[in-house]
Sequence to fold (416 residues):
Amino acid sequence: MWHITRRSFAAGTAGALSGLLTAGDTMAYDPGGELGVIRRPRREFRGMWLATVANRDWPSRPGLPAAQQQEELIGFLDTAVRRRLNVVIFQVRPTADALWPSPYEPWAEYLTGEQGGDPGWDPLGFAVREAHRRGLELHAWFNPYRIANHADPSRLVPAHPARLHPEWVVPYGGRLYYNPGLPEVRRFVQDAMLHAAQGYAIDAVHWDDYFYPYPRPGEVFDDDAAWERYGTGFPDRAAWRRDNTDRLVRETADRIKRIKPRLRFGISPFAVWRNRATDPEGSETRAGVQTYDDLYADTRGWVRKCWIDYVVPQVYWHIGFEAADYAKLVPWWSRVVDGTGVDLFIGEALYKAGDPAQPDPWQDPAELSRHLTFDKNWLQVRGNVFFSGREVADDPIGAMARVVADHYPTPVRPPR
Fold:
């Protein structure tokens, strides 16, 4: 909201008030000669993810005419404005493909229904222009290692890098992944992603929670050859895998700053780094997945080393959930970012609101609003991001409308 502080001063004493000003404030006189400080609204990150993988949010189905795809995309941007959001995190590399004309990878099949099919327009370029016209930031969301949500390389276009370099590929859990243990893979995926950063006026490079794949009981991620070649000097394979992920993050961060020093780099990890039972520095949780141990992603370390500009832990559980309580994870992440200069935004599971498969708290339209109320106790929390665009628009039980009514009375700008 707007905060106005007024004090009376004799003529010529505006300098006495100037010391009260902070960035974004202005001094103003009223007709009675009263001098005041107009407090601008506090900057706050209000984001939504817009997922394209498997046509989750956009486009609604593959093969739509370009004009209809553009109309749908504009609809999501207008929804963001209507909900008083200020950032759209747009998934532009869902499965080792592209939503822009890339020299590295084929067009995403989610556009035309055929991988490599030219949609006749540039979705990323269009999204950047239309978002900025509406005062929205556009963060380009990439998935580094996922190749396909199936395990058949022959279904990829013949010129796909994964077919040209089958030695880069690891099938796992019915899907195909690039091998993070190969230096040439890490370099390639960086080149593919940063091509968009070089060519478009995006506001950030954004990754989600997929590094090494989530573990599947009874299945092995077969990186034996890479481990034998590159694992010398590491105490075990887990430490080597974490180093591979660290290298990807650190190298990408360095390259982003060389390309565009003001371009931000953010990551949205699974919210549990380690349980306290595993590590005294961990959170008071009992989650079945720990990013440090299972995804080989030292998410806490990336923040503490200031390799990233912002972090959006996916705190996708309700307040009071025994195994991973929202009210315990938000304070933990607040302590992690404290003093680092890394911004903390909390990822919110809007998609659970009203889902009959979810527990009772998610049937209450006020649950998410309570999350944002709780977050106000922690100065390190500078905003929230909602998954995802379809639910922001459709809002089946009014949970998003409740958030807007309770917490977003006026538009604000995101932190910078």
The chain has two domains: 1-40, 42-263+311-407.
